[in-house]
Amino acid sequence: VSGALETARRNTCNNNLSQVGLGAYNYATNKGYYPGYLNKVGSRDVSWHVAILGNMGRENVFNNWVAGTVDSPYLEMYVCPSDNTAIGQAGPFTSFAVNTGRDGNDA
């Protein structure tokens, strides 16, 4: 049973990672460059996590973040179910790391 549960967790993690990859790809398709470590959105500097939200079908979270009505949401799509260090952490947390430039224009 535990093997089946871990397989399900691994599949969820792979699906989440695929969504993050597609979000970054869609961002690059729309902007002409991949998001960097810091990205100017309105008057705010946001991380790549926030910058790609609108390209992942999470426009509502993106818009709330830009408007300043939410500052540190916990988003399950950025966390693998088997990542015990990430589960239940307050605020933004991710199981994924990316290699980025300083900002989105560093291409």
Architecture blueprint of SSEs:
Blueprint: H1 2-31, E1 39-41, E2 44-46, H2 48-51, H3 59-67
Antiparallel strand pairs: 1-2
Please tally the helical runs, counting DSSP H or I stretches of 4 or more residues: 3
* Distance separating the two termini: 46 Å
The shape is globular
Percent range for helical residues?
40-55%
* Total strand segments: 2
**Estimated structural class:** mainly alpha
Q: Name the average pLDDT.
A: 81
Rg over CA atoms, rounded to whole Å, is 15 Å
Measured by DSSP, the beta-strand proportion falls in 5-15%
Strand order of the largest sheet: 1-2
* Main sheet makeup: 2 strands, antiparallel
Helix and strand sequence: HEEHH
Name the poorly predicted regions. Answer: none
* Quaternary structure type: single chain
Structure commentary:
- It is a single chain.
- By secondary structure, this protein is mainly alpha-helical.
- The protein contains 3 helices and 2 strands; from the N terminus they run H-E-E-H-H.
- 40% of the residues lie in helices and 6% in strands.
- Strands 1-2 form a two-stranded antiparallel sheet.
- It is globular and about 50 Å long.
- It starts with a helix and ends in a 40-residue tail after the last helix.
